[in-house]
Write a structure and sequence with these properties.
Blueprint: E1 2-7, H1 12-28, E2 30-38, H2 54-72, E3 80-86
Parallel strand pairs: 1-2, 2-3
């Protein structure tokens, strides 16, 4: 089976690329892989009010990937797998 990788940082630009994915996948009879890579920076970030633990970052990444999946494939016309990776 063919697979198309869409990397996302959850920005509007990456969402626009993601919105093209389903049509491309259908044209090539492929699955989509939606990937978000992140880097955990231990400790507080200067000027930040929120401190996320590594577990919290993983949960947030999965939640946002699930949301992106629903946005780019609202009718479930194709198979979309989500992945997140600590960089």
């Amino acid at each position: 089976m063919k697979q198309i990788l869409i990397a996302t940082d959850f920005s509007d630009v990456s969402r626009n690329a993601g919105l093209c994915g389903p049509e491309l996948a259908m044209a090539y009879n492929a699955d989509l892989m939606l990937l978000h890579a992140y880097r955990h920076i231990p400790g507080p970030v200067i000027g930040s009010q929120v401190i996320l633990t590594l577990k919290g970052m993983k949960q947030l990444a999965q939640q946002r990937l699930d949301t992106e999946k629903k946005i780019i494939n609202p009718e479930n016309r194709i198979n979309v797998e989500t992945y997140y990776k600590e960089n």
